[in-house]
Amino acid sequence: MFHPRDVVLMGSMVQMVLRGNTMTHMAIDADSEQWCQDLAFSATAVVVATEQAKEVVWQAHRMTIPQLLQPFGGYYTPMTVQVRTGGRSRQVEGFRIRFLATEDATQVPESVAQDQSSKAFAACVPQGDQTLGGTSPPWFDAWLSSEVASLAFSDHECISQPLATVLVASTSALEPTMDDEGVVDPIEAFEQLMHEANMPPLARRGVLDPDAARMKVLVHDPSRAPPGLDLDALLNRMQSNYSPKSCFILVVGEGQDPIPDIQALFRRGPITPALDERAAAGVQWSEIDDLQRLGTAIVTECAVPWAERKLAELDDNISQKRKGFRNAFSRFLRKPNLPGTEVISGPIGSSQNVQGRSTAEGYTLSSLEWQIRLAGDLAFHLRDYTQALSYYRQVTPDFKQDHQWAVAAGAYEMAAVAAWLAHISTGGEVVAVSEMSRYMDNAVELYQKAGPRFYRQAMRSAIIQSAILRGRTDSPQKLLKTNGDIPDAGLRCALLLERAARLQRDAGQVRKMCFHLVLAGHTFNKAGYKQWALACYKAVVPEYAGKGWTHITDHLLFTMAKQTFALGHTTRSIAYFTDLFNSITLQKDVRSTISVGKQHNYLKGFLYVLRSRYGKELGDVPVDDRVAVILPKVSVDGVSTTVGDSVHRAGSGQMDAGVGRCDPMGFTNRPIETEVESWGSICGLSMGTDRAPADDSGVVLVGQRVCATLVVTNPLQIPIEVTDLRLDFEDPFLVDCSVADPIRLEGDQMVTVAMNVTPKATGKIVVTGAQWVLDHTAPCCWTCPKDQRVSVTAVDSMPLIRASTPGVQGELLVGELKHPIITVANVGTETITKLEWFYSHQDKAIAISSQGKEASAQPLAVGATVEVPFTIRGHHVGHHRVRLAARGIGVSGRITWTCLERDVFVHPGVQLKLAGVGSPKAGPRRAVLVPMRCLVTNFSPTHTIVLDQSGPIDVYPSSALGALQVDEALPIPAGEERLGPGKSLQLIYWVTSGGAYSSMVSEGGDFLLNEAKTAQHLSANRKTKTLGDLGLPVPSVKKDASKVSEHYHIVLNWKLDGPDDGRVGQSFCPHVSLLHPGRPIVVAESGRSPRRTPLDSNTLKTLTGFV
User: Fold this and answer.
1) What pLDDT is recorded for position 370?
2) Given this model, what pLDDT does residue 216 score?
3) What's the structural domain count of the chain?
């Protein structure tokens, strides 16, 4: 039969395990000394109570007596005690003692201990934010705390020697008993409690000392005690029979309702007991003070003084029997106590072995070896680790000689712990770390040699050894060796693999850490602990990410996805599948190849999980609920209108058919990028230009249908189907978008999908991503990065121009001239106020005429066209790409562009050279006649040229005043005006300098004037230059302003003979001097003739067309 309080205790334990324990367990690596002293090898006080006392405390506070006393053994208020060991006094701070009922002062059977450890482990469920930080995860600390606590009161050691015995009786026992034998005297109750039968089993067997200091406590519940009871008289009676400091009366049951702060106080400590939900009910703060005084008295008046006295007594006895030659010789001749091996290795809780021998035939307190061991344990509890170490070292050879393997292993283990804590507490190295490790190696080996019963102690030693060697490479090695030597215990093996992995991380062995952490996860999974296996995998994945181990990360992510789905976490499972496929897509070019079978398994599992979540209703899944998986890979290639189309409303059917036809020059509303040059740099646009060409491609009209292009790629090697593909927009109310037709993608296939987009209102339309359904099961979405998003602006009205030109001959000779007329049409919805032109090869191969500039400055109404004349000249041999860009400004201030380009191939043509200058002579009206000889050469291999008979030569002064009068000095012989390929001709002319200027217009005047200015500018800054891209030498020019008029530019006018007689050209000989050493000095007249007055700039432009 169970007592009601036992039933409640078991129920509360089950509830605690089911709801999860949120307590932070003590970690061996966080505070090693506290872990050893408060948990693994804690000082103990046993509680011996009458049944009436147990019942009174339980009914008053729903707690057992040890639970009631536990916080006041040094946990609620830290205790500092004065101890004396080895002839010197010391202060021990933070001394604690653990209270335990005498019936519980026995080692827990292994099966029960493993069950308790498993429950403690299962109560610490991994959280999502837990990482590899720290060596011990909380579930390992919980498991280890339960394991080491269950190893207390083992019969191979006396570290669990009680330092005090608390005898508890109740005033309710003073009432008449049921058999009406009268009133029970409390003194008699205490005497009965002191009987040996009430002591712990090991004390009754002589392994532990049963005569620890005793504290007598009388529990008084006013509601259950006899009326009119005099507590002071009872206390005086107790103090008259026992030491006054060892007597105490505790009043309970004065309150009713629980106080949360007090309840929290009782849940502190290294091992939180399984408390009832109403535990500590009725405990008042006054009772807390009484309990604190009682706990302090137990420690300072009973436990510590008794341990000091007992240690001194044992030390004297050991000294008497160990010192001297006679004692040393006796120890040398002592016979091994071999029967102890079978006794100590017998089943826990049995007092006899198979031969019927009791444990007293092994080691008891009557043997000197056991007294030395007890002395070491008492010194350890009193924090004198150096003295404890000396006792352990002294006795271990005797234990080994007696073949007491478990006892010797325990002594080795405590020697290492004492040396470790001495190193921690003093900061000095009492024993080298290698020596501590050797002690632990001996302990583990002897525990294993002692038999399976001590495997748990061997694991405790191995774990402590790993903490001692933490940070060294041999720490995880030794732990793994011990874990492998001991038969697999499932949970224990997984936990130690995980700890070894974390120790390897501290030692810098990252790859080994990852391997053993994955192995721990597999072991957890095999044992049925999937959440803990998942925690191991999650900790490993970041370590492998970005290091090329894609086959490992794929396997881990797939395993994690399956396990989370099995645990019912569908959202997490989808997230892991998403990470898996995104890794495959984004790292396709650098990752290892995945087999087709694995890809099928991945996709099949992914679709199964999604089917279980979404079912069959996939059309109306919001974007936020869709899966952000990049399968297939989707990207927006651009949003644009049809090339050459006029602006028209969607569905209106209006289209200007006369504009936008392709011509030999070719044009588009977007610039064509060639080589590494952009339109802006080619056309000479400065940084201050309003917008680059084709900026109007980002502006559309409300209702204008535009085309969005998507590139869809299948990263897998297996076919997939994509349905319901559509775009996502920042403001979906601004636009209507079509839905793409279903797509089937074979392995590694890429397709381009065009989708119609129609703006419904003005504003900026931003494409933020896309959404689709994968294999009719998975509603997916893709979000475009902000820096890669495509956008267009919808407006009510928009300027738009389109340009066209008739065919232009792509083959030219050097100096040949062409006069294309470019037709510009306003196909937008608003008037163009101004046209501006930008073109490549400025001042060298193309120029706009003055008429073209005037035409471009006029407003261009909607639907109107304007013709703009240009001139193209073959300036030097080679392949040239001629580009023009027109920028139109609408009445709204918006800008539109149209761009033209053409490849032109220039071949050798006619070359003009000044061969010589003769002596000048005086002419009419004080003019000067200069004879000039020119050499004309036809370098064309196929064409014959014909010189202009009316006057093939024109001469312009560098001052740009106009053309000079040129007269033929030597007529061209008949028939020689035609110059065949490779032929040359000499021309001699009189040039009249200082006379009247001719108003003759030169077709190449635009280029000649610009090149003359360029030559003058270059010659003023450099000594020897060439004239632009013409490759002509530029002679040095003196800076004397009076001689500026002595430099001239010669122009030869010619045309092609035969069927190509419509092709004309001009050859230049720029920046030449007509001076001669024998030139006569001309005296200037006092009056100035109107004919010799220089023309102003406007007149010059009118006469010559110069720009």
Assistant:
1) 94
2) 94
3) 4
